[in-house]
Input
Amino acid sequence: MSYPRESMSIASDRSYAGGEVYDVYRIREDFPILAECSNGKPLVYLDNAATSQKPYTVLEAMDHAYRRAYANVHRGVHTLSERATKAYETARTKAQSFIGAGDPREIVFVRGATEAINLVAASYGRVNIREGDEILITEMEHHSNIVPWQLLREQTGAKLRVAPINESGELVMEEFERLLNERTRLVAVVHISNALGTINPVKRIVEMAHAVGAKVLVDGAQAVPHTRVDVRELGCDFYAFSSHKVYGPSGVGVLYGRYDLLEAMPPYQGGGEMIRRVTFERSDYAKPPARFEAGTPNIVGPVGLAAAIDYVEGLGRDNIAAHEADLLRYATEATAEVPGLRIIGTAAHKASILSFELEGIHPHDIGTIVDHEGVALRAGHHCAMPVMDHFKVPATTRASFGLYNTREDVDALVAGLCKVREVLG
Amino acid sequence: MSDLRELYQEVIAEHNKNPRNFRWMEGANRMAIGVNPLCGDKLTVYMKVDDQDTVTDVSFEGSGCAISVSSASIMTQMLKGKKIEEAKRLFKVFHEAVTVEDQQPDLKALGKIAVLAGVRAYPSRVKCATLSWHTMHAALEGEEWVSTE
Output
């Protein structure tokens, strides 16, 4: 176990002690940015679906890695390189157990969920998807799970089919099933919608897709911070997530792929690290995951991700989910009192994401005015323009809650929305 | 950051609620569509220009935030009866007032649109304020589409 000793001891000092009560006020002390002020008001950070803030343990683990354990990985025979390599590979094992994968070789470090999906489209897609084949996605996908498939469609002549959502923002399962057929090669589906909060029945989707012989990629960028994920229980073939949404650093993410699939896939990018032997005639590629990690990787990012995983596991993912479910319930009730507010995305199974419109007021005006009250919200199309089209709105305002948000944060949101009415009438 | 009221003045809220010249125009001889891909806002500017290069009528349609709607509304009031060259000059004056740093805007030269000069303190909202002006400028230049990107 090479994990930085100092950092580990700091982590255990500051991380959740595992008591019976989820003490959100104590947890907030782990996040230095939450003590900041914004426009003279205490920061109320409700943009967690865009990215999350970082606890001390993550900052310290990365600082330690740069100060004490930094060298290139998988190369040098010197002590520092071995230390860095061990930290990097320990992070891979952490990520593996975090999502329930059976083998660390099934964990490929990438830049984020977007690159993970692009990797599958470019590598798996290039050899397995041909003209006339079908790729099935849903209407609630983020642009990152639409555009890579459009690019693949252009290259291969495959068809892109889209399963619709209903007025609550839930996938219409009958339509999804109708669109599945023996030409469907791949189903690419979001686990939790970033624009609506909808939790998709991924396990059932996987069973249905496998029944027609299709492989399944799950975009888990929003799921990993909010819910327990077990890729073997879900049965999916690929799973993508980003570190920065789960309290880790930006610039690193994970592609999980079933080992037999990864092993049969061609490289995504060429370079150092991903080869066994190179001559000018030919190159032999390394086994996964190295085959898909060309060049010097983000060396310290995975170390930060590992610290974030430790932090989240220390609090307990079920405890976090319960806390966030309570916040969502409270926020849904509190915002119902705001005149003219309509929630967009009312699925029965929903994560702590609250998208809404305020009658007669544009989301950008809401965003600017509540920002003056210290409240950070997202206003826009959330990189899910087809969802906006479905609900016939140009944009929505979105409050998304993380493990450190409180009922007082929700109260500040509601007060901010009242201020919007006061300013714009 | 400056006081919120410097951005959202009463007159802006009022124009947002009751935008002037907010209509489709029959017989327009200049027209352009402006889009802000950041927020998905889209508006159309219609103009009638006579053979003396005078803007005899100007209107707009579309949806947007209070900043973009009030800016468009005030713009239509300002441009009616102006020469094309004057309209282009006003565009330049307003654009510079909200985008050029280290330079206090000339409120007098801005006229009615001076109420939106405060948007310069909000970089993410400058495109909202200038969308209709870019669109008007494109219409006069004979371009039918303009994007703030």
